[in-house]
Amino acid sequence: MTTTAAAPRHPSTPPSLAPTSVRLSVIVPIAVFAMGLAAAGVLGLRQHDANTATIGAAIDAVADEASNDLQRRMKFYEYGLRGARGAVPGDGRATPGARQRYTEYVLSRAMDEELLGARGFGYVQRVTPAREAAFVAEQREGGSREFSIHELAPNDGERFVITYIEPLPRNRPALGLDLASDPTRREAALAALASGRPTLTGPIKLVQTGAQTGYSMLMLLPVYRGGATPDPARRAALSNGWVVAPLASGEFLNGSGMFDRSYSLQLLDVTDSARPVLLNASPPQAEPASEAFDRRRQMSLYGRRWELVIQPGKALVAKQQVTSALTVA
After folding, report:
1. What is the 3-class SS of 28-84, one letter each residue?
2. Where does residue 194 rank: exposed (0-12), middle (13-18), buried (19+ CB within 10 A)?
3. DSSP 130
């Protein structure tokens, strides 16, 4: 009798084991990929933050330098004014000799090189209504034959008259102007007289710059009899007038070399923070960078509060040669 051999028996696979193995073979690679992706994302974000900090630091340095340059330029104007005050006679009278000395001083300065933006230097004399006719006659006899006083608005009180200003060809419309006929000019002149220090007007339009865009200002320095600045109580009584520098903001902002073409500037007067005034701006960038890179620098200058806004272009950002976040990731 032939006995049929029984087929070998294999242990049965638990029903739940095969599906679990399949799930693990899928889940593990996905988990590893997700972890790698998360790590790359973290590295990429860190590199992005590092890039932003590097670019921001570079733009901060540019902003600080532009702000410092502007403040240095204003100091140059002050030094020029102090020199001009030394050319004014002690009694403040605008005689032909005094006019000649003043002209020689101003023309000795390289205005368009060392003092770019200053249209010149003038002398402003205080004139009471009782002396007005005699004062005009003195100016005509002293060599300014067509001299006359002109106003920006009616003024029946004391006049602050630009008696001479050089270089005359580019400042002729300002000769004879009564600064006291404009509240902004008058306020700054009186503030300078009281403080004994150089003082800026608020934003104004210069009569000698025609249709130039933006606003400008005057820097005024008081002139006292005897030369020295007297005690506060005696300053009004001993004041002869002021030396003045008309400052064209567009000229010193755009032509001074304060910036290169990889960023733009805006200059605002923010003395009244509720009503800031845009004084002037350099040409805007054709390809501006993100506004997040804009920088602002405020400064107190001669009685005013100014704000300089630096707006970088993409070219300035590209100069920093930062590592791409995608490369790190």
Report:
1. HHHHHHHHHHHHHHHHHHHHHHHHHHHHHHHHHHHHHHHHHHHHHHHHHHHHHHHHH
2. middle
3. G
> Are the C-beta atoms of 240 and 92 separated by less than 8 Å?
yes
- CB 171, CB 119: distance < 8 Å: yes
Order across the sheet with 199-200: list the strands.
159-166, 121-127, 239-247, 217-224, 199-200
pLDDT tens by residue, 118-175: 999 999 999 999 999 999 998 898 878 889 999 999 999 999 999 989 999 999 999 9
Cα end-to-end distance, the chain, whole Å: 77
Contacts of 153 (CB under 8 A, 6+ apart): 181, 182
Backbone angles phi, psi at 110, to 5 degrees: -85, 80
Summarize pLDDT for 198-254 with one digit per residue, the tens.
999 999 999 998 777 889 999 999 999 988 899 999 999 999 999 999 999 988 887
CA-wise closest residue to 222 among 244, 252, 242 = 242
Q: Rounded CA gap, 127 and 134, in Å? A: 10
CA torsion angle 190 191 192 197 (round to 10) = 160
C-alpha to C-alpha distances, 232 to 82, 92, 193, 195, 197, nearest whole angstrom: 19, 19, 9, 7, 11
| Two tokens, residue 190 | 């009186």
Of 177, 161, 192, 167, the C-alpha closest to 115 is 167
Q: Give the SS3 label for residue 324.
A: coil
Q: How far apart are CA 180 and CA 111, in angstroms?
A: 27
